[in-house]
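Q: My labmate handed me this sequence with no annotations at all. I'd like to see what the chain might look like in three dimensions before we decide whether it's worth expressing. Could you predict it?
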Amino acid sequence: MDLITQAALGATVGAAVLGPKLGRPAIGWGAMLGLVPDLDGLLMPFIDTAWDLWIHRGFSHSMLLVIVASVGLAKPLSKRWKRQKVTPQRAGWFVFLVLATHVLIDCFTVYGTQVLWPFSSRPVAFNNLFIIDPLFTLPLLVAIVGGLRIDGKRWKKGVGLRMTAVCLAVSSAYVGLSYWAKHAASTAVAEDLERRGIDWQRRMESPAPFSILLWRAVIERDEEFWVGYRSIFDGDSPVVWTIYPKQAGVPADLADDFEVRAVRRFSDEWWLARKTKRGVWLVDMRFGTYREWDKRGLALRPIFAWEYQVDGRGDPLKRTLKEDREMGPMLSRLWERMLGFEEGFDTAPRLIGNPATTSEALPTVR
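A: Here is what I predict for the chain of 366 residues:
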């Protein structure tokens, strides 16, 4: 999740565990510790893109590290808060719960988290929350603001703890609601495919940006990916599918290069490739696309895409994301689509962002 959410979650969990002892400072300690697992991002300036894909949400998000940190920091923190009578057990639970909830909430996203590192590098991803979801974060922010307004005496009387527990319960209920919404979208997608008589190898559903109302389904078939959107307000409307041909894939002489293997591993093989003059363009199909509407129809620019430049200097795996993007029209269309309005959302789609071509027309199934 985003840093604001992680800090807010750590602050709220910290207040729940240490608030009765420390009062308002527990919020700050929780927020600070809640950001610790993401400190692996500090390595980014010193490593190339392939290594970043390989290690991010890896060792720093391992439950082994969470347990080691909880045991190792229990006595030092207890000594630090000796005047407040914080026992080593409570200090250890504080560290464990703040770090573990950081790891857990990351598992809810598409990105994936290597929870079992170093025993397994396979990421865990439940795909039920978008990386930024204001409705999940807002109750946590309410808990922080409310907690900062409560003095130490009222914290000791349990006022702050009750308020914090209510806010955590609201955010947790929202996570539970996301599973219901995902189930509804997944069921509708499965019924649509069965009605069409479409066979497939794998399928996944994940939320579109900023809510759990709209879901993006990706279907892998032998020679193509099908991508469609489903709102919980769509009723009996059929899914409109955009088809991404896999084409030739990665050239054989590049398949074993570390950069290609890093993308393949990171994407859990939900990927497609296009040859370029300098190497190969790689797209992670799990993530969505920036959508731009013009006179020709809909231009789809993958959010996670890279060009592997075999003869490139410096970092050979270069992100191909356009920086100057106009987000207003896309967010407006997404909001309309969330509410079930489909007109023009998937008209005449074409894939853009590939350095080797201006655009690639994509067929649709309605």
